[in-house]
Write the structure tokens for this entry.
Amino acid sequence: MSLIADTIRQIEPQDAAARVAARKRLEQLTMPHWALGRLMDLAEDLAGMTRSQQPPVGRKTIVTMAGDHGVTAEGVSKYPQEVTVQMVHNFIQGGAGINALARLVNARVIVVDMGVAGDCSDFAAAKAGRESDRSNFKFISKRVRAGAQNMARGPAMTREDAIRSIEAGMEVALACCESTDIFGTGDMGIGNTTPSSAIVAVITGGKVEDVTGRGTGIDDQQFHHKVAVIKKSLEINRPDPADALDLLSKVGGFEIGGIAGLILGAAAMKKPVVVDGFISTAGALIAHRLEPKAADYMIAAHRSVEQGHRIALKHLAKQPLIDLGLRLGEGTGAALAMHLVEAAVRILTEVATFEEASVSKATA
Amino acid sequence: MSLIADTIRQIEPQDAAARVAARKRLEQLTMPHWALGRLMDLAEDLAGMTRSQQPPVGRKTIVTMAGDHGVTAEGVSKYPQEVTVQMVHNFIQGGAGINALARLVNARVIVVDMGVAGDCSDFAAAKAGRESDRSNFKFISKRVRAGAQNMARGPAMTREDAIRSIEAGMEVALACCESTDIFGTGDMGIGNTTPSSAIVAVITGGKVEDVTGRGTGIDDQQFHHKVAVIKKSLEINRPDPADALDLLSKVGGFEIGGIAGLILGAAAMKKPVVVDGFISTAGALIAHRLEPKAADYMIAAHRSVEQGHRIALKHLAKQPLIDLGLRLGEGTGAALAMHLVEAAVRILTEVATFEEASVSKATA
């Protein structure tokens, strides 16, 4: 059996009994009924995911998947493609947004070269030679190809490479599983809002204009051009909406496939996975199309500035935890949301019940 | 000079030069322009408040002000008044929501008896005798009276007691200042959404129906009754909207005065103060009416389920950081928001600039 089929087969829904037990306790806590709102919903979810009334979330792993996109040749981004590899270098140095925010929540960051166009061969060695570990960083190479092809001219990758990218994400999840209680997703890839919008359009049925955003900050003219490029890519590739592998191969990217694989792997092992922003949610849509039950393990970190994110989250029936105008990716939203996940667990495990604290209950 | 006048006199606006310096760095960070959105706005604010490019926020103090309300005799809450003192006891035991969430962000909690009806005399002693400190808690008595009077029958307190409650909050701020980088506000008081709604109605000019909510969870009939009680209180007391002390004395509460005093004290010492939910924001409105510049030091933690909170925050021109359907008070929203404050500081101080990291900038 293939790794993808085998992993998907292992995905079970959340445990109903664990959810009921958690809800029962949460309803007895010394506070007005459900007064901590969505954090209590989250606590119930975490119990259902982990089958535990003390959901473990201490060991946090954020996996930042990096890949390049031939479609940048069409001028869809404000930044040159070389920035992808430069930012991977920045991750190693510990100077990126994800480093700072992951350190704050005590998460390790695993950066995976899924298909960067630039040379990453020195990075593992550079990392090994470092004395201090300000970067809370690990580098793994799972490179499928040196960047996806230009989807405006043909398929972004072969079907075999799409499978390979998902398998690579699963392999990362499996390799980290023993040392991880909760996963977070992240991405780095100049141009990757373009394939993400294409995926969101196909899976949700949304109009390209409605699911495309400003990415790194393009102006009106560039926006209209980006929409045209996405439309053209969909026209020439005609991805099959029912076939996630076809969709990923035609208008996807290696890091998006990696994110989908990571989410499926986490779900198979009953680990919560915090889905970062727009690109990560495109990966989540691929995962969800392959196995809808995977959504039981997804936690939506934040609502991105990218307008298509709202539509993508709605398709997954997920409400994000944070809404602070973020549009960075890297896993930064996931890192921030992990603190709220920890808060939810503390509420479930540390707050006393009315009976335990001898506090009078509400009148009927 | 009185403590109130003296404290207010010390409040200066945020420092413009510190804001400019922070913005300049934030605009050079290795990410698309302002890609961490409102966290970057917050970082700029923190620089302006603290006059520092490395705003100190490590030593966190959440002050939970407790007080009772005679208006509970009108049946405005689902809970009996005795719950206030029981919850203070729960704070001491470390079993309340605020204990759990404050521990998570490594904040100490100072619970202040501003005017609890029940007996709190044993609490300081009980605390002193404890071996382990799971409660991350300190108890202070600043009791003005054993509960405010029923505002539906006359003034909640005398003008002198209103002054005393604000001074008490200032005293707490001054006493903690040396050991605190950032303050958070919190409240405990059965019935206290009722005076808070009255204050919000008077200061914002909002209709009582629009600024009144369900508090601890009352039904439709109880809601209409609560609105009627607030209207009656305003009719018989006729508070002067231009005179915050008159307003606080007529339809306020001791803990609300304490919160106002704490905020003014923090602002005077140029310390950021995270304003929790609806009751804390009523206190913030009192502080703001006494000295509008105090708003320069306020950070709105979250948007409460209480419908009047939106109107109150709008009056202060504050956008909350969190929107998770919380309605507990105690300082729980402030505790959660403190993590985002810390995240903002990390972004300002730990993320590399394009130049530092040798990353290519955007094309024009």
User: Anything to note?
Assistant: Chain A has one domain: 59-340.
